[in-house]
Please model this.
Amino acid sequence: MSAEEKNGVDISTAPEKEQVQTKVVKGNEAFAEAMTKEPPSAWTGAQIMIYSFSIIGFFCSTMNGYDGSLINNLLQNQWFKEYYNVQSSGIWAGIVSSMYQIGGVVALPFVGPAIDTWGRRVGMLIGALLIILGTIIQGTSHAAEAFMGGRFLLGFGVSIAAAAGPMYVVEINHPAFRGVVGAMYNTLWFSGAIIASGAARGALNTGGDYSWRLITWLQALFSGLICLFVFFLPESPRWLYVNNKKEAAKQMLTKYHGNGNPESAWVSLQMHEYEELLNMDGADKRWWDYRALFRNRSSVYRLCCNLAVSIFGQWAGNAVLSYFLGAVLESAGYINSIEQANITLINSCQQFLFAIFGAFLVDRVGRRPLLLFSFTGCCVVWLGMTIAASEFAKSGGGINPDGTARQGTNKAASQASLAMIFIFGSIYSVGITPLQALYPVEVLSFEMRAKGMAFSSLAVNAAGLLNQFAWPVSMQQIGWITYVIFTVQDAVQAFIIWMYLPETKGRTLEELDEIFAAKNPVKASIKKKEIGLNQYGDVVNVHEV
Model:
């Protein structure tokens, strides 16, 4: 007698296994299957080691934050402005600071080959070495041309390091923690900005040329740390695999993702996906071949999603508050150098905290909701900033055509403008900052990732060039009316994100291929699935919305 008959079950009416109203998970549900079969721990010894490796990658973001925010601090330093005869706003401020972006644009042909040919680690090293060279030129410069040449090399090096760093962090991390750790990468931009602001504030006490040369030399700090530690890091398992080092790739996954177990569900999942989806003779093997970026509709769509977040992150209005905050503060009535340095430092600290908070939300809330919240919120804040600044201008405040500031009498409007600066920083940081590096990496397939990130760097620097040349002149010529442009831009960008950008959470990098292959990637990406076990012990969809 069967077990069913012994237990009094009428086998004639018992449902067949195939009749269960659930289905076995496969395809893009493999991630959830592995989560159920082998729940990962965030605090194993192996995972802590990955966090340590990621910190070295984070230094690429830290040095980017330092280099990127340094010019804002220098343009608030009266000795620097006197030495090179520049103002906080105007065309010269744009030229001096724009060399950073020009260097990044020129680096485009070299980013992909450097990272694909020698690996993610060597890409970080090349970028760090160029930054050190640029720092030496800047620190020893006695003419504006030499200083700008150093800025050019900094931008060139940062373009390579800022592409290699997030790729390395995202590719070495466990799929279950890729979102949070990858989002944390760009939050470290503010650690560099805080160090730059703090050093600039302290250096003001020394006075003279040392007050700006000191903070210029500090640019070599984090690039030097990368050079010291980079070869102690494991290489990206994906790069190892496609470069015919499959055993090394599996050993890396086994040690750090499988906790030493080669039969781990996470090791099997990723190795299977590498075998099935990674192209062993793809365009990443040929430095001149960019066809993978434009091969089909899916590739173009991926690249457009990458570029959208890269560009939108630069055009939210944050550039004015990053590079020309001194001019914004002057237009709001805050003229004293010490006062400006204190505001800059406090603003960087609160943005850092909100960026970290946002990084912990990327896997809970999702990428799309965070981006929509931030761009919509920034639109509202710039509207408030426009109203407050216009009221302050009516009382006589603003910037004269020669770049000098004039005081207004409406203190309430001045304080409201300052409040909007801090509110903007918090809203921008919680959603946009964590995703500026994570999302562009996620939406690209491995074959197109390095060259796609080169285009991302190009987009960031090209958008930055507009920021460098347009906004300082705009702040000088039309003042607060500049904020109307940001209000409209953020509204348009929020609409584009809502319409066209898919969600990427809850899948491995390789599983995202299914999303972009779907007829409607946005709809496919936000379909919700709940995973469980049926009575036969299979991992299944128990509910689907």
